[in-house]
Specification:
The complex is a heterodimer of chains A (about 300) and B (about 400).
Chain A (H helix, E strand, L loop, with lengths): L5 H10 L6 H13 L3 E4 L6 H11 L4 E5 L6 H4 L1 E3 L1 H13 L5 H8 L5 E3 L1 H4 L10 E5 L6 H13 L1 E4 L3 E4 L5 E6 L7 H6 L1 E4 L5 H11 L5 H16 L8 H13 L7 H11 L3 H21 L3
Parallel strand pairs in A: 1-8, 1-9, 2-5, 5-8
Antiparallel strand pairs in A: 3-4, 6-7
Helix pairs in contact in A: 1-2, 10-11, 10-12, 11-12, 11-14, 12-13, 13-14
Chain B lengths: L5 H16 L6 H11 L7 H12 L6 H14 L52 H9 L7 H11 L8 E15 L1 H8 L11 E8 L2 E6 L5 H20 L5 E6 L3 E3 L1 H4 L4 H11 L9 H16 L5 E5 L8 H13 L3 E6 L12 H6 L5 E4 L3 H12 L10
Helix pairs in contact in B: 1-2, 2-3, 11-12
The chains are: A alpha/beta (about 300), B alpha/beta (about 400).
């Protein structure tokens, strides 16, 4: 279902268990409506990839994911020929006495031998619906790929020399994410709807935890979220994202906790923090932060 | 879909212009997208209106606060408290307010425009003979006359830069590392599909990113300007080659990113702007705290892909040595090579005994002088030969 307004977008996302700010809802809605790619930036673990899954569900269409890495090239992003099978085909044709070069060529470079990679797949519709294409962590790919992508995103077509130009019947819904390990080129950014996803507020994060960790006691959820929020204010090398909060809340629940205890916090800090220096720092402050968290949580 | 009226469109265009005057680059294409977006949302919803502007016109998170400020000022200056949508019902244009460009960040007067307070000397354009050049190269920056400094600056722009390379994961044709099936197969078609020759591919080399952190505190003042010239010459050369591989920061009591400013073609314009931008020029030094800021805010963004870090400082640090050591260790761990450049090494009998240097020393890969042109030339050579493995301290 294609949402018809910002409010509808926000509600639809929420119905699929994604709690979105107004700003994100506006960006998503406009990206859908104007057929532009959506560029999401933000710290790791704030839900950039998650929203794409939700979008695919919401639009009831396929999700195609392209994970970027350095050295990503046409043969892994767009298409590749199945050489082994092509070789075999040539031998078969030879055995059958086929001598016509043109014909052999035509047979060998047929659709059967074309291996479609994510970008080519994204041009295809199923049941008249364009897929959702996630281009994940574009900052990891190199500039050459970014340049290619810019062309792809403006024309929605790919040319395969042996086959010709393949064009999208309907452009896919494209979401690009970046962790900003390097700047994305301006030309690409300007083609996109841009939104920076920040860490959520207490209320929002609390709602997310209740939504995603079913069965968590109200008090534990509140305290855990307040603790993480206080932790983010500290000078850490890598602050915990929402994904970490969810992991932590789930761990606390699995450990049978009903409210936060200093000892348990110290033992489980590794779930929240990924750097040893940060863990040590947080351990020293755990009691202090807990006291603050308890003051903040309304229960 | 409601089509924005002529009236609203004029304001949209004016708004884009006022963003530009505040230094937020907005293209006409983006402005058009914003106008189209206004046809899709309810413009009587101030929040939606704001976010539509943001997601179509903003491309950089750093500009977010400034963007919000310009947005508020602009729409309020039209006499509208909250509703841009009111514009639809208006008939006449409200009195046009001039969106004046701020005269830049007002900081203290730039002191980088001259080593001394004397009048700038006319540039003497004389051809330097070989021996004169040699003498000039050996002379310490802090002992040069204004005239010699000018000549030295010119020489900087004649350096041949060979940034070190690293092998990327991208493959190029015709190498000797990996079978290139695509090409081999294509070629085999010439021979009825007989694989007569196998072509190979190899990894493509690319220049390593370079990150320079230059100390502009009081004790470094005599060298800082020349080093900025050096970094500018380097940036310019890189820009000319079309690569974006050098990031530049200054530090004293705080860290300032000057990468964009140094990309200006004119060195004078660039350095004047740096002077305005850098607020702690000739102040104290807190290297540890500045490296901390760098490690937290910038390291992940600029140290990827095997960067080489140049820290340019004499090591006079007013902060805690423990902090400096801690941050140096982190910095060294997250870059390919950490080179510390110290102008004082050129002083006869110099011993690196300051608390800061002693704390930082264990985490340097190289400790090199930067007191004259010769040493800068050597630095360029060292950079060109940085190997895949970490070396020991020279």
């Amino acid at each position: 279902m294609m949402p018809q307004s910002v409010e509808e977008t926000q509600q639809a996302l929420e119905a699929h268990h994604y709690i979105a700010d107004k700003g994100l809802s506006v960006a998503v809605f406009l990206a859908l409506k104007l057929g532009r790619p959506l560029l999401l930036e933000g710290e790791p673990g704030v839900g950039k990839t998650e929203i794409v899954k939700v979008l695919a569900e919401l639009l009831q269409t396929r999700l195609i994911r392209l994970q970027c890495y350095e050295g990503l090239d046409i043969s892994s992003a767009v298409y590749e020929w199945d050489y082994a099978r092509q070789m075999m085909q040539i031998r078969l044709l030879e055995a059958s006495g086929e001598r016509n070069q043109e014909k052999v060529r035509h047979e060998v470079f047929g659709a059967d031998f074309l291996l479609k990679r994510p970008l080519l797949q994204a041009l295809e519709t199923t049941d008249g619906k364009a897929p959702v294409l996630l281009i994940d962590e574009l900052d990891r790919a190199d500039e050459e790929f970014e340049a290619f992508l810019l062309e792809f995103l403006s024309d929605w077509q790919i040319s395969v020399p042996e086959v010709g130009t393949l064009r999208a019947e309907r452009p896919p819904v494209v979401v690009i994410t970046s962790n900003r390990t390097r700047e994305i080129h301006d030309a690409l950014k300007r083609r996109c709807m841009y939104y920076w996803i920040d860490y959520p507020s207490f209320d929002k994060e609390y709602r997310i935890v209740r939504e995603k960790v079913p069965g968590i006691p109200e008090k534990l959820a509140q305290q855990a979220v307040a603790f993480v929020q206080a932790l983010r204010q500290q000078d850490l090398y890598k602050a915990p994202g929402v994904a970490e909060t969810l992991d932590w809340a789930a761990s606390l629940l699995a450990l049978g906790q009903t409210e936060l205890q200093p000892e348990v916090i110290e033992e489980t800090l590794g779930v929240l923090l990924k750097y040893q220096d940060d863990v040590v720092k947080a351990k020293n402050q755990a009691r202090d932060l807990l006291a603050r968290a308890q003051m903040q949580s309304p229960l | 879909m409601t089509v924005p009226t002529h009236q609203l469109l004029r304001h949209v265009v004016a708004f884009a212009r006022s963003l530009r005057s505040e230094g937020i680059v907005v293209t006409p294409g983006q402005t058009a997208t914003f106008a189209r977006a206004l046809g899709e949302i309810s413009i009587f919803d101030p929040l939606a209106f704001f976010y539509a502007a943001q997601c179509t016109l903003l491309t950089r998170r750093e500009d977010q606060a400034r963007f919000a400020e310009v947005f508020r000022k602009f729409w309020q200056s039209l006499g509208l408290e909250r509703f841009p949508g009111e514009l639809l019902n208006q008939t006449a244009l409200p009195p046009k307010k001039e969106q004046k460009a701020k005269p830049g960040e007002v900081g203290r007067e730039s002191r980088c425009s001259g080593e001394s307070n004397s009048q700038p000397l006319p540039i003497v354009d004389r051809a330097l003979t070989f021996s004169e050049t040699e003498v000039l190269k050996q002379k310490r920056f802090d002992q040069m006359t204004e005239e010699e400094l000018e000549a030295a600056r010119k020489l900087l722009y004649n350096f041949v830069w060979n940034p070190p390379e690293r092998r990327t994961r991208r493959l190029k044709a015709f190498g000797k590392e990996q079978l290139d099936l695509r090409r081999s197969f294509r070629r085999s078609l010439k021979h009825q599909g007989e694989l007569l020759e196998l072509t190979e591919r190899s990894r493509k080399p690319k220049p390593r990113p370079i990150v320079a952190l230059a100390d502009v505190s009081g004790s470094m003042e005599r060298y800082a300007r020349m080093l900025l010239h050096f970094l500018h010459a380097f940036s310019l050369e890189q820009t000319r080659k079309g690569v974006r591989q050098i990031e530049t920061f200054t530090f004293g009591t705080r860290l300032t990113r000057i990468t964009r400013t140094l990309k200006k073609r004119s060195v004078d314009a660039a350095l004047t702007e740096v002077g305005q931008q850098v607020k702690d020029w000739s102040g104290g030094t807190r290297i540890g705290a500045c490296l901390h800021t760098f490690n937290h805010t910038w390291a992940k963004r600029v140290l990827g892909r095997g960067a080489i870090v140049l820290v340019i400082s004499d090591g006079w640090d007013q902060g805690a040595p423990e902090l400096l050591a801690f941050e140096m260790e982190r910095l060294q761990k997250s870059c390919h090579r950490l080179i510390w450049l110290n102008p004082l090494i050129g002083t006869p009998g110099y011993q690196p005994l300051t608390r800061g240097l002693v704390a930082a020393m264990p985490f340097m890969d190289d400790f090199l002088p930067v007191h004259n042109l010769k040493s800068l030339e050597q630095l360029v050579e060292v950079l060109a030969t940085v190997q895949r493995q970490r070396g020991s301290i020279h």
